[in-house]
Amino acid sequence: MIQKTDRYLYRKPESLMDNTTIYCPGCGHGIIHRIIAEVIDELGVREKTIGIAPVGCAVLAYDYFNFDVTEAAHGRPPAVATGIKRCLPDRIVFTYQGDGDLAAIGTAEIIHAAARGENITVIFVNNGVYGMTKGQMAPTTLLGQRTTTTPKGRDPYQHGFPLKICELLATIEGVYYIERTKIDSIPDIIKTKRAIKKAFTYQIEDKGFSLIEVLSTCPTNWKKTPQESMEWVRREMVSFFPPGVYKDKGATI
Predict the structure, then answer these.
(1) Which residues of 116-140 are buried (b: 16+ CB within 10 A; e: fewer)?
(2) Cβ neighbourhood burial of 191 (10 Å; 0-12, 13-18, 19+)
(3) At 41, which CATH number?
(4) Which residue among 7, 37, 39, 210 is least crowded, i.e. fewest CB within 10 A of its CB?
(5) pTM of the full predicted structure?
(6) Structural domain boundaries, residue 173
């Protein structure tokens, strides 16, 4: 006798709400939300997780995550996460930040949280522009990249060079784990999930500060189609922001 079984190609994680997305077509935030939700479900920590969302497109995260999420002032999620984690050390605390938030107004916050070795997880979404405020140059905007404030392209002598956050933070002693990933292909999405899961696992094990930088897309402000945006990540972003592990104190030799 043939026994009928149900097979699922897709199942919504419990850590995601049913809300319809309002992100632009081709935006990477939805993919990253899904990855985070899957990881939290797989680790069985949904009831213990607290997220911190700042100003910017990342602030919309609290509309989609089905666990406690609080908002922080622009650039201040690491400080808020520090306070929450120190008061509630049994909670799993993470920040979800964009490049304008983390690498500009929040540069001091992230550096000092890393220097203290705070036992938190940071998800850093790098799409190279200020997304919510119409695509101005961000600290991670590529050289030559056109934005609303660099219409002729970013000039290093006028605007400075892009900041490489992974490379910068990897030099700090308090950091336990740093990795840069991307989401322009299925294999890379799988790698990103693996990195985020490792970062959360290290926090559960009380290892200290972890940051995962995810190279993402902003088709609207890049003035590209979703497909062209994915190609831009592969062709342009990775040449300046190479994916890879920049520090992992838990890695075995």
Answers:
(1) eebbbbbbbbbbbbbbbeebebbbb
(2) middle
(3) 3.40.50.970
(4) 7
(5) 0.93
(6) 29-248
